[in-house]
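Give me C-alpha coordinates for this 216-residue protein.
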Amino acid sequence: DTLDAVIAGEQKAEGYESSDLELSSDDDDSDDDSDDDSSTSDDNDEAEEEERPNDARDNKRQKTMDDEDETFPNGIVKTVHEITEIVVERPQFEITSTTELIFAGHILQIIDNVVVVQARQGSEYQTLDQGSLLAYEDRTVLGEVFETFGPIVRPFYSIRFNRSDEIDRDRTKAGAPVYYVPSYQKTKIVETEKLKQLKGTDASNLYDEEVDEDVN
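Here you go.
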Protein backbone atom coordinates (compact mmCIF):
# COMPACT_ATOMS: atom_id res chain seq x y z
CA ASP A 1 0.00 0.00 0.00
CA THR A 2 2.82 2.36 0.91
CA LEU A 3 4.53 1.58 -2.40
CA ASP A 4 1.31 2.09 -4.23
CA ALA A 5 0.82 5.41 -2.46
CA VAL A 6 4.36 6.49 -3.26
CA ILE A 7 3.95 5.49 -6.91
CA ALA A 8 0.64 7.26 -7.07
CA GLY A 9 2.20 10.35 -5.46
CA GLU A 10 5.09 10.41 -7.93
CA GLN A 11 2.73 10.12 -10.87
CA LYS A 12 0.71 12.97 -9.49
CA ALA A 13 3.78 15.11 -8.93
CA GLU A 14 5.22 14.43 -12.34
CA GLY A 15 1.90 14.51 -14.26
CA TYR A 16 -0.61 17.26 -15.04
CA GLU A 17 -3.94 17.82 -13.45
CA SER A 18 -6.82 18.00 -15.85
CA SER A 19 -7.27 21.63 -14.84
CA ASP A 20 -3.63 22.26 -15.73
CA LEU A 21 -4.24 20.85 -19.20
CA GLU A 22 -7.28 23.06 -19.70
CA LEU A 23 -5.41 26.15 -18.56
CA SER A 24 -2.49 25.31 -20.81
CA SER A 25 -4.79 24.79 -23.77
CA ASP A 26 -6.52 28.12 -23.14
CA ASP A 27 -3.20 29.90 -22.93
CA ASP A 28 -2.04 28.37 -26.20
CA ASP A 29 -5.29 29.29 -27.94
CA SER A 30 -5.05 32.80 -26.58
CA ASP A 31 -1.51 33.11 -27.90
CA ASP A 32 -2.60 31.76 -31.30
CA ASP A 33 -5.55 34.15 -31.48
CA SER A 34 -3.29 37.04 -30.56
CA ASP A 35 -0.86 36.05 -33.28
CA ASP A 36 -3.70 35.71 -35.81
CA ASP A 37 -5.14 39.10 -34.88
CA SER A 38 -1.72 40.70 -35.17
CA SER A 39 -1.15 39.08 -38.57
CA THR A 40 -4.60 40.17 -39.83
CA SER A 41 -4.00 43.69 -38.61
CA ASP A 42 -0.65 43.79 -40.38
CA ASP A 43 -2.26 42.51 -43.60
CA ASN A 44 -4.99 45.15 -43.40
CA ASP A 45 -2.43 47.88 -42.82
CA GLU A 46 -0.43 46.73 -45.84
CA ALA A 47 -3.57 46.60 -47.99
CA GLU A 48 -4.53 50.11 -46.93
CA GLU A 49 -1.03 51.35 -47.72
CA GLU A 50 -1.26 49.80 -51.19
CA GLU A 51 -4.70 51.33 -51.83
CA ARG A 52 -3.79 54.85 -50.76
CA PRO A 53 -1.46 55.64 -53.71
CA ASN A 54 -4.05 54.36 -56.19
CA ASP A 55 -6.79 56.43 -54.55
CA ALA A 56 -4.55 59.48 -54.63
CA ARG A 57 -3.80 58.98 -58.32
CA ASP A 58 -7.50 58.46 -59.12
CA ASN A 59 -8.49 61.57 -57.19
CA LYS A 60 -5.80 63.61 -58.92
CA ARG A 61 -6.83 62.31 -62.33
CA GLN A 62 -10.51 63.09 -61.65
CA LYS A 63 -9.64 66.59 -60.43
CA THR A 64 -7.61 67.21 -63.58
CA MET A 65 -10.51 66.09 -65.77
CA ASP A 66 -12.95 68.28 -63.84
CA ASP A 67 -10.63 71.28 -64.13
CA GLU A 68 -10.32 70.78 -67.90
CA ASP A 69 -14.11 70.68 -68.38
CA GLU A 70 -15.96 73.93 -68.84
CA THR A 71 -19.73 74.36 -68.79
CA PHE A 72 -21.15 76.87 -71.25
CA PRO A 73 -24.37 78.87 -70.71
CA ASN A 74 -26.39 76.44 -72.84
CA GLY A 75 -25.37 73.60 -70.52
CA ILE A 76 -23.03 71.88 -72.97
CA VAL A 77 -19.81 70.63 -71.35
CA LYS A 78 -16.68 71.00 -73.46
CA THR A 79 -12.99 70.65 -72.72
CA VAL A 80 -10.71 73.66 -72.48
CA HIS A 81 -8.86 72.50 -75.59
CA GLU A 82 -11.97 72.08 -77.71
CA ILE A 83 -12.55 74.61 -80.47
CA THR A 84 -15.86 76.34 -79.78
CA GLU A 85 -15.62 79.52 -81.85
CA ILE A 86 -15.91 78.78 -85.57
CA VAL A 87 -16.33 81.70 -87.93
CA VAL A 88 -18.52 80.77 -90.89
CA GLU A 89 -18.06 82.81 -94.06
CA ARG A 90 -21.25 83.18 -96.05
CA PRO A 91 -20.85 81.96 -99.65
CA GLN A 92 -20.80 84.72 -102.22
CA PHE A 93 -22.59 83.09 -105.12
CA GLU A 94 -25.44 84.33 -107.27
CA ILE A 95 -28.08 81.81 -108.22
CA THR A 96 -29.87 82.94 -111.37
CA SER A 97 -32.98 81.65 -113.06
CA THR A 98 -30.80 79.49 -115.31
CA THR A 99 -28.57 78.03 -112.56
CA GLU A 100 -29.05 74.29 -112.33
CA LEU A 101 -30.43 73.04 -109.01
CA ILE A 102 -30.73 69.38 -108.04
CA PHE A 103 -32.93 68.12 -105.22
CA ALA A 104 -30.80 67.21 -102.17
CA GLY A 105 -33.26 66.50 -99.37
CA HIS A 106 -35.53 68.08 -96.77
CA ILE A 107 -34.90 70.29 -93.76
CA LEU A 108 -35.13 68.13 -90.66
CA GLN A 109 -34.68 70.63 -87.84
CA ILE A 110 -32.82 73.62 -86.44
CA ILE A 111 -30.45 73.09 -83.50
CA ASP A 112 -29.22 76.39 -82.09
CA ASN A 113 -27.19 77.89 -84.97
CA VAL A 114 -27.19 74.75 -87.15
CA VAL A 115 -29.68 73.67 -89.79
CA VAL A 116 -29.90 69.90 -90.30
CA VAL A 117 -30.96 68.54 -93.68
CA GLN A 118 -31.78 64.88 -94.28
CA ALA A 119 -30.61 63.61 -97.65
CA ARG A 120 -33.18 62.44 -100.15
CA GLN A 121 -34.04 58.79 -100.50
CA GLY A 122 -31.79 57.06 -103.00
CA SER A 123 -28.64 58.74 -101.67
CA GLU A 124 -27.02 55.40 -100.96
CA TYR A 125 -24.87 55.73 -104.08
CA GLN A 126 -23.85 59.39 -103.96
CA THR A 127 -23.71 62.01 -101.23
CA LEU A 128 -22.66 65.63 -100.87
CA ASP A 129 -19.29 66.46 -99.39
CA GLN A 130 -18.30 69.31 -97.10
CA GLY A 131 -18.43 72.71 -98.81
CA SER A 132 -21.24 71.85 -101.22
CA LEU A 133 -23.72 74.69 -101.68
CA LEU A 134 -27.38 74.25 -100.73
CA ALA A 135 -30.29 76.49 -101.66
CA TYR A 136 -33.98 76.88 -100.92
CA GLU A 137 -36.65 76.13 -103.46
CA ASP A 138 -36.94 79.82 -104.40
CA ARG A 139 -33.19 79.81 -105.30
CA THR A 140 -32.10 81.69 -102.22
CA VAL A 141 -28.78 80.49 -100.85
CA LEU A 142 -29.08 78.43 -97.68
CA GLY A 143 -25.38 77.82 -97.07
CA GLU A 144 -22.51 75.40 -97.48
CA VAL A 145 -22.53 71.89 -96.08
CA PHE A 146 -20.50 72.13 -92.88
CA GLU A 147 -20.53 68.41 -92.17
CA THR A 148 -21.97 65.21 -93.61
CA PHE A 149 -22.82 62.65 -90.96
CA GLY A 150 -25.06 59.69 -90.19
CA PRO A 151 -25.71 56.50 -92.17
CA ILE A 152 -24.21 56.26 -95.64
CA VAL A 153 -27.50 55.07 -97.12
CA ARG A 154 -29.23 58.33 -96.16
CA PRO A 155 -26.92 60.83 -94.44
CA PHE A 156 -27.56 64.22 -92.87
CA TYR A 157 -26.06 67.56 -93.86
CA SER A 158 -25.41 70.30 -91.33
CA ILE A 159 -25.34 73.97 -92.38
CA ARG A 160 -23.73 76.10 -89.70
CA PHE A 161 -24.26 79.81 -89.00
CA ASN A 162 -22.34 82.15 -86.73
CA ARG A 163 -25.50 83.01 -84.79
CA SER A 164 -28.95 81.49 -84.64
CA ASP A 165 -30.56 84.80 -85.66
CA GLU A 166 -28.79 84.57 -89.05
CA ILE A 167 -31.06 81.68 -90.02
CA ASP A 168 -33.98 82.62 -92.26
CA ARG A 169 -36.82 81.25 -90.15
CA ASP A 170 -39.44 81.90 -92.81
CA ARG A 171 -37.73 79.67 -95.34
CA THR A 172 -36.15 77.19 -92.93
CA LYS A 173 -39.17 75.10 -92.04
CA ALA A 174 -39.12 71.38 -91.20
CA GLY A 175 -39.92 69.42 -94.36
CA ALA A 176 -38.98 72.23 -96.76
CA PRO A 177 -37.11 70.97 -99.84
CA VAL A 178 -33.43 71.83 -100.29
CA TYR A 179 -31.36 71.75 -103.47
CA TYR A 180 -27.65 71.66 -104.20
CA VAL A 181 -25.83 73.73 -106.82
CA PRO A 182 -23.57 71.62 -109.09
CA SER A 183 -21.90 74.69 -110.64
CA TYR A 184 -20.66 76.02 -107.30
CA GLN A 185 -16.87 75.71 -107.16
CA LYS A 186 -16.83 73.78 -103.87
CA THR A 187 -19.75 71.44 -104.53
CA LYS A 188 -18.50 67.88 -104.55
CA ILE A 189 -20.27 64.55 -105.00
CA VAL A 190 -18.80 61.55 -103.18
CA GLU A 191 -19.37 57.98 -104.33
CA THR A 192 -20.60 56.13 -101.23
CA GLU A 193 -19.12 52.85 -102.45
CA LYS A 194 -15.66 54.37 -101.98
CA LEU A 195 -16.59 55.48 -98.46
CA LYS A 196 -17.54 51.93 -97.56
CA GLN A 197 -14.07 50.75 -98.56
CA LEU A 198 -12.32 53.24 -96.28
CA LYS A 199 -11.17 52.06 -92.87
CA GLY A 200 -12.20 54.67 -90.34
CA THR A 201 -10.75 55.36 -86.91
CA ASP A 202 -11.99 56.96 -83.72
CA ALA A 203 -8.49 57.86 -82.57
CA SER A 204 -8.31 60.74 -80.13
CA ASN A 205 -5.47 62.75 -78.73
CA LEU A 206 -4.28 63.24 -75.16
CA TYR A 207 -7.39 65.23 -74.29
CA ASP A 208 -9.84 62.71 -75.82
CA GLU A 209 -10.47 65.08 -78.70
CA GLU A 210 -10.38 64.46 -82.42
CA VAL A 211 -6.92 64.38 -83.96
CA ASP A 212 -6.02 67.41 -86.08
CA GLU A 213 -6.60 67.01 -89.79
CA ASP A 214 -2.93 67.78 -90.46
CA VAL A 215 -1.85 64.71 -88.49
CA ASN A 216 -1.38 61.63 -90.68
